[in-house]
Amino acid sequence: xxxxxxxxxxxxxxxxxxxxxxxxxxxxxxxxxxxxxxxxxxxxxxxxxxxxxxxxxxxxxxxxxxxxxxxxxxxxxxxxxxxxxxxxxxxxxxxxxxxxxxxxxxxxxxxxxxxxxxxxxxxxxxxxxxxxxxxxxxxxxxxxxxxxxxxxxxxxxxxxxxxxxxxxxxxxxxxxxxxxxxxxxxxxxxxxxxxxxxxxxxxxxxxxxxxxxxxxxxxxxxxxxxxxxxxxxxxxxxxxxxxxxxxxxxxxxxxxxxxxxxxxxxxxxxxxxxxxxxxxxxx
Length: 283
Hints:
GO terms for molecular function: isomerase activity; metal ion binding. This protein is 11% helix and 29% strand. By secondary structure, the chain is mostly beta strands.
């Protein structure tokens, strides 16, 4: 299944994508899509629904993040060896964990707002893991049993903020820095999550081309590893790292996003996103 949420920010309704790619309104069956709604039992019940009998949503409504109430947004850094090389950083011997503020989460096509004082805005196409059942000290062999599905993420970064200290979080958690979606794609829809093509364009020019098969630590390893240090709850999201081609790694000089730039990205089977960069607005 492909599950989503549509409508104005803060007023999203749950939806499902049908076999023909149409958006169907799920709100008569579910008022919300939260971590509690992606348990194995809940997903099994949704899978039994005949999507063709649900109301077809007309037009092209805004899509929000595919879940609400996400408790943790965890990120894995430098998880592609060629991205580590372009960043002039060593290949990590174990996964690097940092957090992205949940207030950064937004819809897949929402504008990206450059934060006040920002000067080095960058892009990162990533596969995101969505947890479906509680995971605590799980083995690698059983780790994917705790995964509800996958979604596309852009780990937007303000490198000037990020590199001010060894703690990356303040360059990762600004508002609108966490576009998720367009859908949560359930695990059964993806034959091999370790072989998905991924790409990202800036103003129509290809910047990133990669495949999830070149991760240093695969999703099963990541879920098992992270679950040693924190309990993973239904609805938690883990972004798994990015392939090479980020602005920080451009040669001979880095290239940064600026207001008016358009970023488009996608992962095979998980859909695509489009963001326009906007100036910050004082509040």
